Amino acid sequence: MVALDIWYDQTPKDDEGNVVIRVNTAAELDELIDRIIAETADNVAPPMIQVALSGVKRSPALEVGLGKEKGFIGYTSRTEGGWTVGDGDPDALVDYIYMGNHSEVPASAEVPISTVRRGLHEFLVAGTRPSVVESDALS
């Protein structure tokens, strides 16, 4: 298992002003996902988080949308990238909010939130592209 650094909001998490949230266990990850979904339930658009391996330079990274029922994962590493693939319209865009900034993703990237959660757990265990993300090899 690896440790994850997660960026969710701009609220400092320590006396030095760091905004990263460190997650070391599956229980901590589930608690954070549940908290984020609960805190943003009434927002105009669901939140996005960014996730990287703690202490790893040039870490693979995830962009993750956390809606009440649906979300997405985008994966980027030095050698590949990819997205979750759902049944939404590939020409339609869905709104998400990352640290107060508006973002859009293709509706076709949205999958059930249980799939997003599973992908995050896989990343916590292995630190590699989650199986729920289809590769679009960058090489």
UniProtKB/TrEMBL annotation:
Domain of life of the source: Bacteria
> InterPro entries from the entry?
DddI (IPR025680)
Q: Return the Pfam families for the record.
A: Imm1 (PF14430)
Listed name of the protein? Immunity protein Imm1
